Amino acid sequence: MVNATQDTNSAAALFASLNAKSGSASNASSVADTQDRFLKLLVTQMKNQDPLNPMDNAQVTSQMAQLSTVTGIDKLNVTLQALSDSLMGNQTLQAASMIGHGVLVGGEGVELSGGAGYGAFELEQSAESVKVSIYDQSGALVRNVDMGAQPAGIVKWAWDGMDGAGSSTPDGVYSFAVNATQGGKSVDATTLQFGMVSSVTQGKEGVTLSIGQMDGIALSQVRQVL
User: Could you tell me which residues come within 8 angstroms of residue 83 by beta carbon, excluding any fewer than 6 positions away?
Assistant: First the structure.
């Protein structure tokens, strides 16, 4: 795995640009070869046609139209590939600028470090009562946090590392769930996990991030940059 960092980002962008140009040149050569083969075939066909039954204009026009269609498709493929390469490079640059920043992605984990843990959730609609339940790795309830009424959208929360009895808990990875209600009815809540972006990787599957203890997180999974 090759990680892109702030210092090597320019080099990565340069290599991506060179690869894109190389691929475009190869595709352009393919288009030229297709045209050359067609013209040779057409000339050979016309040279060897029956003088008493030559090709009519409609046949020649039809074959020229086929060449135009094939050439157009090849050129469109070249353009699309160039756009794809450019988009990949732009995504890498965008992702590299996130290194060292905190982000929220879909997940139910919360990492407690130095007596502080952070998380978030997203409500589809406002709720008059929201409670966050924190669990240890064995699934045992550690603490319930009453968030009160909350508006629709992303809501961030912090944990001081204390359990329900007021005792400190050891650093480590915990999980959490959200229970939100409005008028006695449940409100859908999506849990969001907080982490710091440490590295960026560009591979066959696209641009992925390493966030806290999570690896291989797609750029599209980032819900908010803090």
Answer: none
Which residue is listed with tokens 């498709």? 73
Band (196; pLDDT cuts 50, 70, 90): very high
pTM for this structure? 0.61
Nearest 5°: the CA angle 132, 147, 137 is 20
Instruction: Write the CB contacts of 208 (distance below 8 Å, at least 6 apart in sequence).
Output: 200, 201, 215, 216, 217, 218, 219
Q: pLDDT tens digits for 87-138?
A: 655 667 677 888 899 999 999 999 999 999 999 999 999 999 999 999 999 9
Q: How far apart are CA 36 and CA 14, in angstroms?
A: 33
CB distance 190 to 104 below 8 Å: no
3-state secondary structure of 67: helix
- Do 143 and 210 meet the contact criterion of CB atoms below 8 Å apart? no
